[in-house]
Amino acid sequence: MNWIQENTDMEGLFDSLKLLGVDVVFGSSNLCQETMTLTENENIRYFQLRHEQAAVHAADGYARATGKPGVVLIQTASGITNGITGIATAYSDSVPLVIIAGLRNQSSLKSQAWQELNISGLTMPITKHAFALSDFDDLSVILQDALSIAANGRPGPVLVELTADSKLTVNRKEGQGHHTSKQTTVNARKQEKSLQLAKEYIETARKPVLLIGGGVISSGGSGHLKELVEQSRIPVVSSLLGIGAMDAANPLYLGMLGMHGTFAANKAVHHCDLLVCIGARFSDRVTGKISGFSPKSKKIHIDIDPAEINKIIPIDLPIVSDAREFLSELKIQLDYQLIKENTEIWTNEAIDWKRTVPRFDKSKSALSPQSVIQMLNKHADEETIVVTDVGQHQIWTAHYYAFSNPRTLLTSGGLGTMGYGLPAAIGAAATCPGKPVICVSGDGSFQMNLQELMTAVKYQLPIKIIILNNGYLGMVRQWQELFYNGRYSSVKMSSPNFAQLAEAYGVAGYRAGSEEEARKVIAKAFHHTGPALLEFDVVEEENVYPIVPPNHSNHQIILSR
User: Fold this and answer.
1) Going by C-beta distance under 8 Å and a sequence separation of 6 or more, which residues neighbour residue 89?
2) DSSP string across 32-101
3) pLDDT beyond 90 at 39
4) What confidence tens digit (pLDDT) does each residue in 217-228 have?
């Protein structure tokens, strides 16, 4: 039994969470029977994972799929250190989490007693705020504050630390969430002027492009974006985390921008005269070489966090605003007829780039990873949630799965966390029992948290786990091939038979090595009601294209080799 359960009023904790609208809690500890009965009576579902990192990833997946803060219970000391990767992943991608953690005794920290650690200090760089709580009379208020801070402003993780021998203290990290009210005041005062300037920039541009990021999705602004684009016919590109805000089938959506972006997206941004960036932070994977990024354009940057504006790319018109609020106001003020008259030639040219330029070499292998992703797309519906790990399979999924709705692609962007996929898929499956969830992984990433197969079995979650097995740490191998003269080092993978391993856990296992076999096993797996694992033996040295070489500008893209 863990410290949280031994020393905490669990009834009060779950009562408070239920009253605050929390319906799912994740953790790695085994709750006692009384607590399990309580959660069932209160209609709060508790999912017990096998590892603290996985528990945090599961809460992260829940949060990305629903837009609500994910809640996770973690033990003290090693529980927190195990969970650090999950917390940092959520912090990097602005995902709202509330981490409830136990600390046995404040005074024992000085003597480094067993299972004692300064967890608030350890997590300070990767959380928005931290609360320390010893008086449970204040529990409901603190939890309400934590959930609010996690979700408002720029979302992120909040730590609630339960202590045994200190008076109630609140340690609020100075940062984006703490200044939400101030930002709102500033935005209200400057919003009208900023909107008028943005309107003028857009209406007079000849070659505008919209760059959308995860902020559009997390703010709930996708609907407003689609209306604006439909009426203005301005081409749209996205970051990895912005995928799903636009329908991939829309001709005006040119695809993902950056190192692994499409030819059309990179060319459009390079040649545009106005770049309107909404809810994205100009990461290095998006910009390529800074000096060569969109060199001919004026730039408007809309972001909820003022610290992100002018941090990397010089901006002509900075606007500190929630993406949804900005789009909802802008769409009713624009002169769409004027915009279409000014941009018709440009728009048609950009659409033609998307239509005529291929994104990859046609694979000569018996089973290509691209074709596997396209088969999955045909079997899934628009509401299916797709979760990926990190690597080549992540980029193939981004390009060849036709996402049409927000919150249907869950992936680690800023931290690039291998091992994220399966536990995050569990969190996504927890949002709505029976809702289809696909987890796409590689043979390298999957082995980092494969123990959570048992969790999928325990709760009979209908997750379809896809492993593209190429026998390598594929993305690292590709870099070594293309940019280090083929000198491979520490990239060859040794793996079990994943299909047989899945069967050992009680998961239905399938394996395919050709397109005909792949079609058959995908059809079988999608008719299977419980969790299923599908292993696809793909060609070892298949590369991800397009790719921009390191220290190059995005227009210097490699389409094939």
Assistant:
1) 56, 57, 60, 95, 412, 414, 415, 417, 420
2) -HHHHHHHHHTT-EEEE-SSHHHHHHHHHHHHHHHSSPEEEEE-STHHHHHHHHHHHHHHHTT--EEEEE
3) no
4) 999 999 999 999
Least confident of 17-31, 381-395, 494-508: 17-31
Average pLDDT over residues 387-396: 97
Q: Could you report the per-residue pLDDT of 501-538, keeping only the tens digit for each? A: 999 999 999 999 999 999 999 999 999 999 999 999 99
pLDDT at 524: 96
Please name which of 414, 426, 196 lies closest in space to residue 326, comparing C-alpha atoms. Answer: 196
d(CA 177, CA 406): 24
Rg (CA), the chain: 24
Q: How confident is the model at residue 343 (pLDDT cuts 50, 70, 90)?
A: very high
Adjacency order of strands within the sheet including 253-256: 253-256, 236-238, 208-212, 274-278, 298-303, 317-320
Question: Cα–chain-centroid distance for residue 211?
Answer: 17
Confidence category of residue 171, pLDDT binned at 50, 70, 90? very low
**Exposed e or buried b for every residue in 489-527, given b needs 16+ CB within 10 A?**
eebebeeeebbebbeebebbbbbbeebebbbebbeebbe
6, 27 in Cβ contact below 8 A? no
What is the helix, strand, coil percentage profile of the chain, to 5?
A: 45, 15, 40
Compute CA distances 206 → 201, 295, 518, whole Å.
10, 15, 46
Q: Are 188 and 68 in contact (CB under 8 A)?
A: no
Q: First CA to last CA across the chain, in angstroms?
A: 57
Query: 45 is written with which tokens?
Result: 């579902």
Nearest residue to 357 (alpha-carbon basis) of 190, 229, 545: 545
> pTM score > 0.90 for this model?
yes
Residue 209, φ and ψ in degrees, nearest 5:
-140, 140
Lowest-pLDDT choice from 87-101, 286-300, 356-370:
356-370
The residue behind tokens 């059309």 is 264
| Structure tokens that stand for 308 in this block | 């992100």
pLDDT in tens, 177-210: 333 433 444 446 678 899 999 999 999 999 999 9
Tell me if 548 sits within 8 A of 285, measured CB to CB. no
**Residue 235 token pair:** 């081409």
The three-state secondary structure class of 230 is: helix
Given a contact cutoff of 8 angstroms between Cβ atoms, the answer to whether 538 and 251 are in contact is no
d(CA 254, CA 238): 8
CB 45 within 8 A of CB 430: yes
> Which run of H or E residues covers position 25?
strand 24-27
Round to whole Å and give the CA distance between 421 and 443.
Answer: 12
What's CA 104's distance to the chain center, in Å? 33
